[in-house]
Write a structure and sequence with these properties.
single chain, alpha/beta, Rossmann fold, four-stranded antiparallel β-sheet, 19 strands, binds S-adenosylmethionine
Length: 393
């Protein structure tokens, strides 16, 4: 199939392997199944009663393939709705097993989950779920797929197949520091994960900024405006001319041309406010979580990571889905940001951890707005959610 924006004469690469199900078959299975999870056994939990039949805030225990098929049927019957009335989930974040050949344990030494799929088995496992997730996404929805060096390149090709290369937005590098610093003989230490960002067709993109105190490393111009400078880099002469007209050129005492970046004044002093780019190096890994956030569930991701993703790609009241929910980081962040959420996990320890975490969400830290709100407790109770059990495959 020829896609828009395709370079003339080029063929899109595809990953061919034994056992790759035709997409039509993956989709046909949706209609073959009976109700995949027991809505009869749903439990109302939380501080208030929820709207009848609304899928908002669901915690589904069980295999995600069957749960996703049921959610797609709910979407088709008009029951998966964002607050603005659009159908389908606005944001999907998944942090699946990474093909690490490891059995992960909880802090009480209970098996949390097994990460033992490799090669084409891993690729096909994820591909089938990505096709189902695409069906569930709103037309202006985004999907973030969190992986590491082992499978991210294979899954990039699969994402292009499933979502279309024209819907690829970013490969985000989450440079978490710390952990990878341990010496690996004969190679660089591994210090980052990869998060692939795609959209269904259109998408929401709220620009975010990082704000840091500027310290003393800035100057003031004749109007008193605070600025920092950077080397001229690749700017052409005509760009320099334009920047000069905008008052953005600084000439050093030795006559060198540098580019000015103006800083913002805040009640606490001068701050360096920068647009978040595709390298995220300001969020430490799960080993450095504060006491109120740490659950002891292995491979727990920081709320700060999910806060950034949710704030970028959703508005309040939108539906957020995590189909490999683990300790419930996505759900907690969505709850605190006033979004609706759906979480799925096949492991009992994951569901237990998530429930405990949602129960004590009020004791966790409130999110800082533009860095201006001092650290204090979130204080609110978790809103209502329903607990479902997905039937085994
Ligand atoms: C890397 S962990 C997710 C961690 C999570 N992001 C967090 O912050 O805690 C992956 C999770 O996927 C779950 N999982 C693996 N295969 C699954 C499947 N087929 N269906 C549902 N959950 C699955 C595991 O039980 C595990 O909790």
């Amino acid at each position: 199939m020829k896609r828009k924006n395709q370079v003339r004469g080029s063929e899109e690469p595809k990953l061919q392997y034994i056992g790759k199900s035709p997409e039509e078959k993956v989709l046909a299975d949706i209609d073959l199944r009976e109700a995949a999870f027991d809505r009869g056994e749903q439990k109302e939990t939380g501080s208030a009663s929820s709207k009848e039949d609304a899928p908002s805030n669901m915690l589904i225990s069980g295999e995600n393939r069957t749960a996703l098929m049921e959610l797609i049927r709910l979407k088709r019957s008009g029951k998966v709705v964002n607050r603005d009335g659009t159908h389908g989930v606005r944001l999907i974040y998944i942090d699946p097993p990474f093909s690490s050949n490891t059995t992960y344990k909880t802090k009480s030494n209970k098996k949390a989950y097994e990460d033992n799929l490799a090669g084409i088995d891993f690729i096909e496992f994820l591909r089938v779920r990505l096709i189902l997730l695409r069906e569930l996404l709103a037309d202006n929805g985004s999907i973030y797929v969190h992986l590491d060096w082992k499978m991210s390149f294979h899954i990039k090709v699969i994402m292009d197949e499933v979502f279309g290369p024209e819907n690829f937005l970013n490969d985000i590098i989450w440079h978490y520091g710390g952990r990878g610093a341990k010496a690996i003989s004969g190679q660089f230490s591994r210090n980052h994960d990869v998060i692939l960002l795609y959209r269904k067709d259109k998408h929401i993109f709220n620009k975010l900024y990082t704000i840091k105190e500027a310290g003393s490393g800035f100057q003031r111009d004749s109007d008193g405006r605070a600025f920092k400078t950077a080397p001229r880099g690749d700017y052409t002469d005509s760009s320099i001319k334009r920047l000069k007209a905008e008052g953005r050129i600084h000439t050093t005492k030795t006559g060198k041309t540098r580019i000015k970046y103006f800083l913002e004044e805040s009640p606490d002093g001068v701050v360096d406010k920068r647009l978040v780019s595709d390298v995220w190096d300001d969020i430490p890994d799960g080993m450095h979580l504060g006491k109120s956030e740490k659950t002891g569930y292995p491979t727990q991701k920081p709320e700060a990571l999910l806060k950034r993703i949710i704030e970028t790609s959703t508005d309040p009241g939108d539906l957020v889905l995590d189909a490999f929910a683990g300790s419930g980081t996505t759900l907690v962040a969505a709850e605190k940001l006033g979004r609706q959420w759906i979480g799925i996990d096949s492991g009992e320890p994951a569901i237990e951890t998530t429930r405990e975490r949602l129960d004590r969400v009020g004791e966790t830290e409130r999110y800082e707005e533009d860095g201006k709100v001092p650290k204090r407790k979130y204080e609110k109770e978790c809103g209502p959610y329903k607990l479902y059990k997905a039937h085994p495959e």
